[in-house]
Amino acid sequence: MKGEIDTERVLCEVDDLAEHPCREFRVGAGPWPLSGFLVRKGDDIHAYVNRCPHAGHPLNIRPDRFLTPDRSLIVCCSHGALFEMETGFCVDGPCAGASLTRIPIETLAGFVLLAEDVDPADYE
Ligand code: FES
Predict the structure, then answer these.
(1) Domain residue spans in the chain?
(2) Residue 3 above 70 pLDDT?
(3) For the chain, how long is the longest CA-to-CA vector?
(4) What's domain 7-117's superfamily in CATH?
(5) Residue 38 in contact with residue 74, Cβ under 8 Å?
(6) Residue 66 CB-density burial (10 A; 0-12 exposed, 13-18 middle, 19+ buried)
(7) How many CB atoms lie within 10 A of CB 113?
(8) I need a surface site. Which of 46, 71, 74, 115 has the fewest CB within 10 A?
(9) Cβ(53)–Cβ(75) below 8 Å
């Protein structure tokens, strides 16, 4: 029904990103769900697959921690690659010039959701 929220696509509430600007999520069935994270910069929220283009590792070790101490860039904890928050583009490190894989999202009624046409299986 129009206006109803598909709860299977909900990643978090927008307010969940108010104090701490990053949040991990997993969606999808089977042994390899889509593992991603949200990052808020100003009023904009971006989502990326939690997989570094250098060696394929998850970017974080600690839950929901993806940023440099000054919160200006996304950092991979394995070998220190640095990525722009707005684009996922790697500006320094062993995969400079590569990019994180963006996941389309939308906000609706105070929630952050996977975009309607996203199939988590496409990101395996
Ligand atoms: S796996 Fe991310 S910098 Fe090497």
Answers:
(1) 7-117
(2) no
(3) 47
(4) Rieske [2Fe-2S] iron-sulphur domain (2.102.10.10)
(5) no
(6) buried
(7) 20
(8) 115
(9) no
Average pLDDT of the chain?
A: 94
**How far does residue 108's CA lie from ligand 1's centre (Å)?**
33
Tens digits of residue pLDDT in 93-115: 999 999 999 999 999 999 999 99
Q: How far apart are CA 14 and CA 102, in angstroms?
A: 18
CA 8 to centroid of ligand 1, rounded, Å: 31
In a mutational test of the pocket of ligand 1, which residue from 54, 73, 100 has the highest number of ligand atoms less than 8 Å from its CB? 54
Tens digits of residue pLDDT in 52-73: 999 999 999 999 999 999 999 9
What per-residue confidence (pLDDT) applies to 123? 85
